Amino acid sequence: MNEPMKDEQVAAAELNEADTLASVAATTPVGQQEELKLSEMLILASMWMIFGFMLWFYLSAFHGAPARMMADFFLSEILGDSFRQIIIEPNQNFLFQVETNIQYVFRDGTQEALGFIVNPLIFSYGLPLLFGLVMGSDVSWLRKLVIMLIGYSTITLVQVWGVVFQSLKMLAFNFGEQSHVFVTQAGVSDSTVALGYQLGTLIFPALMPIFVWVLTNRPLVEQFVGWSADALRKDVK
After folding, report:
1. 129: in domain
2. CA torsion through residues 121, 81, 168, 90, sign
3. Within a domain: 18
4. Angle at 166 between CA 163 and CA 170, to 5 degrees
5. What is the rounded average pLDDT of the residues 154-180?
6. In 177-202, which positions are buried (b, 16+ CB within 10 angstroms) versus exposed (e)?
7. pLDDT beyond 80 at 123
């Protein structure tokens, strides 16, 4: 007698569990995904970021080409005939070689056109950072592609700013009065060069990828912080 009763209790328990699961499934919208946790996103972003840094470095000669051409244009507009061109450094393709028409007298007494090296990667390290954040997010692949295109365009402009002002900084402060006079004649003050260099080196490269990701992933950010901007505006009203 006890065994049939136990079987009936087990069957009733299984039936109740099935009913509970069915009710939960019925109240869950079709296609709804489990919310991404912040810790999960950070782990995914870190893993993707490592891969992004490899791509960023080894493909730097390609993704840095637009920045090199735009920086060449702006420097030629600023410095005029004293500027010649920006080319890829022959031995290290990720570096830019800035060539000028300034006849510079070196310490050994020789006189040649002044040229120097600029590393554009110190202005674009936000690209693999943004790549990791985007790939770690649970948005569609199309949206990821759009965010990366926006981010690449923004970081390219940051890179142009950095290359231009580092070149002006080196001409103004690194090679003495022989090159400083050409920057002054171009109408660029020392304070402008210093401000542009600080912004291009310390501020823009670090903040711009974060701004792009936050502005293009508002729902995800609101999920992590636990409040909505729309709800906050309603509360204020």
Report:
1. yes
2. positive
3. no
4. 135
5. 95
6. eebbebbeebebeeeebeebbeebbe
7. yes
Classify the C-alpha dihedral 136-140-141-142 as positive or negative.
negative
CA-wise closest residue to 138 among 46, 210, 30, 219: 219
* Whole-number pLDDT of residue 35: 65
Average of per-residue pLDDT across 187-209 = 95
CB 130 within 8 A of CB 212: yes
Are 94 and 64 a contacting pair, CB within 8 Å?
A: yes
User: At 1, is the pLDDT very low, low, confident or very high (cuts 50, 70, 90)?
Assistant: very low
Q: For the chain, how long is the longest CA-to-CA vector?
A: 112
- Rounded Cα distance between 84 and 113, Å, is 10
- Cα 181 from chain centre: 35
Alpha-carbon distance of 104 to 178, in angstroms, equals 7
Is the CB of residue 75 less than 8 Å from the CB of residue 86? yes
Per the structure, the complete domain to which residue 90 belongs is given by 37-236
pTM of structure:
0.78
Q: Are strands 111-118 and 83-88 parallel, antiparallel or unpaired?
A: unpaired
Amino acid of residue 3: E
- What residues pair up with 96 in beta bridges, in sequence order? 88, 118
Decide if 106 contacts 216 (C-beta within 8 A). Answer: no
- Report which of 86, 82, 85, 79 is spatially closest to residue 120, judged by C-alpha positions: 86
Looking at the structure of the chain, the number of domains it has is 1
Q: What is the pLDDT at residue 231? A: 59
Taking only the tens place, the pLDDT of each residue in 75-118 is: 999 999 999 999 999 899 899 999 999 999 988 888 999 999 99
Report the DSSP beta bridge partners of residue 104: 112
What pLDDT does residue 12 have? 52
